[in-house]
Structure formats: structure tokens, C-alpha cells
Amino acid sequence: MKNGHEGKAGGSGNVLISWIRHILALPGAAWAYATGKWHAMQASQSMLESAEPLALPSSSTAKLMAAWGKASASPGDPPRPPVVLSNDEEALIARIRLETEELNRNNVTRTEGYRNLYFRMPELHWALLAHMVSRNGGWNMTDLQGEWLPRLLNERQRKDVFLFLERANRLIFGDAYPQLLLYEWSRRLGRSLFHLLPAFGVSSFMEPVWRHFWRDGDSAMLSTALIVNEQHYIDERVARHPYFEERVLGTMFFGLQSLLQMNAVFFPYRCGMDNRGEELQLAGLILERFQSLDERIEFGKRLYAMLFGIPRVLDGVRNFAAAVKHTGSRADYASGLFQPIRHQPPERFYAEKLLGGKLKPGSTPLYSPPLHAAWGDHEPEPPETGDWFRGPEQVGKYFQKLTFPPNFEITNEYGLLLNKLELAVLAAQRGAASPLA
Length: 437
Description:
Number of helices: 15
Strand order of the largest sheet: 1-2
């Protein structure tokens, strides 16, 4: 236990567990939950019937393994000679750096950058995946200042979680976006420019992948490699960073991450506009252990397989991404359930609003602010330098196959998560009679 505030959060968590067990023990609630799970499984199976599996050809993997063997450096090897750049290449590097910096201001600008780039070059599957994951990151950021979390976490805890989410979001964009732009410029100029990747500090792991993509156009192989690269890139810089291990990942409240929804990724593939949110449908997955590098990579691969291998999910997500600009508010996809503006000050004690994951009749929508109302732009420390890649044996296991998750229709599960979060607030009030933090 780190401090008094975290002890309070832990006590609330214990009250919450017993409270949820009590609720789920009620016959009606247990039946509704079981029925919802059954319908979700049926919906997942129905969508899987039209699924188109994504392949990672063993021949492509073998070629890349050989190329990675040549690209990797062993301890004691002399440094590679610097690349001699032309004036045009130096100008292009400066231009890409400037565009990346401008779009890396906050989650909204990053998310929009991914979206625009994907619709310019839809062969870059990873850009759409990154856009949707970045949307989820923004929603998690604004939840920290929304309806419920200010009643469960104190201001310092919320700021630490925001910095954790922001750093991961920002570092991935700063590493990956220059790579995507370099591909776009290669297309414009009609020649490979991937020898410029080291100028952006990109791992030596990625240059063979981009050259392979330039020749073969293998979107699945490129997307998998980008998932592997970005999760390795943030592993020591975020997931195992001492500050975040102590202030976020190692704390009592992060043990309730499934309750706080920070380990869930939702893809809205149908969004309704009625005031009960009846048409909202979500595909998604829940990550069990963020600290595990292998689990994060496999999680990303399953999200990718679901997004680009299941036509109904891809069509719905593409339509949503094209039509709905990201603001950071959950009202982006459920405008009947969430509102981006709080029309009245929050009550000292929270009154229950949900019934079965839906608003109770007469209840006002849940407050979910846009990003600009929740957090200002944050100027972070520059990322640590260094290349994570040591050799092909480090990555070969990630390129065996892409598999569909058996159950991914998560609309009912999302409603349950909302109910759990509301119950946490009610339980905290019952156990400690706690006002706003």
C-alpha cells in the first residue's frame, strides 16, 4: 500500500467485490448476464462464418528471418557507417519530423493523423488498427475526468494514469508515423526510401519488413511486424518504466483495471442515435496482463485479425471511422448514453443511473468530456534512445499465425462493465460515505 488514498481505493475495491457478488447472485441478474453471454457467442459465431483468415506465409517469414539475421548487431560489432544524405533527403526528413511533431500534440491530433493516412492508403492496415486503438486510449483518458472515476481515484492517481496512457500513445505515434509517411513518400516518388528509417530512430527490425512490403504488398506481414515493433518499443519505456511501475502498474487501483476498462479495446461497428443506445454494437477484446510483452503482442494480433478478417466488423468500423470525428468523448459512439457537456454541477453523492447497461428512464446521460475539456496538451520527456532488436530468434515466434478470437462481440460485456463501474461508486459511498475526491 503506497498511501492513504490508495488504501481507500483498495478498501472500496473490497466492498465492490462483495457488492458485485451479491448483485450477480440475484437470479434475475445472473440469468440476464448468462443470456447476454450466450447471445454474444452466437453473434460472434455468425460473423465468423463469413470470416476471411489472414495469412503469414512461411516463405515470407523465412525471407525476413534471413534479412533480420543480417540486420541485427552483436555486442562488439563496429557501428554501421552513417548514411550519406542528399539535400532532398535531408529536406524530406525535416518535413516528416515536423509533421509528426505537429500531429503528436495530443490524442485527438494523433488519432486523426492515423485516420487520414489510412484513407489515403488503405493498404496500410495497421493505420486503421492504430486509429481505433488510439480512440480507445482517448476515451480512457477522458474517463479519468468523467462521471465516475473522479469519485474512485484521487487527483494524483488520475494524473498518473493519464501520463501513463499519454506516454504510450505518444511514443507509438512518434515511432510509427514517420515510417508510414516514408512509405507514402516512397509511393509518391516511385522509389524506396526505407534507407532513411535510421534517421528517425526506427529499429533495425523494421527496414527489412518495409522492403518486403514494398516488393510484395503483404499487409498482414507488415501489420504484424508493426505490432511487434511498437510493443517492444514501449516495453522498457512505458510498461517496465520505474515511474509507471511504482505509480500506476504496481498500485492497488490498477489491480482493478478490468473495472476501470483500461485493458479493454472496443470497436463500434454499429452505432445508433436513439436516446437509449439500442443500436450500439461493439466488437472487442479484454487484455488480461498489460505487463506481459507477449500478451500485448498476441492481443494486438487478435485485434488485427478480427478487424481485417471479419467483413462485418471491418465494414462497420470503416464507416464509423469515416463518419465520426474523434473528440475523446464516449458520446462519439453512444450519444444517447453519454453527453460531452455537463449541464449541472455533479451531485455530492452519486445517484444510480443505469439498469442493465442502459439509462434508467428519466436519468440524464453520463458525463464524458471531450479531450480538450479533460486534459491540456502535455510536453513529455523525450524517449530513451536505443534499439530493442537483438536478432531473429527474438521475434520468430510472433510470425507463425494470425488467429481469430472465438468470442469478440462485446456489447453485452460493455454494458456489464458500465454497471460494475457504477456499482463501484455506489459501493464506495455505502462503505465510506465518500464525497467527490
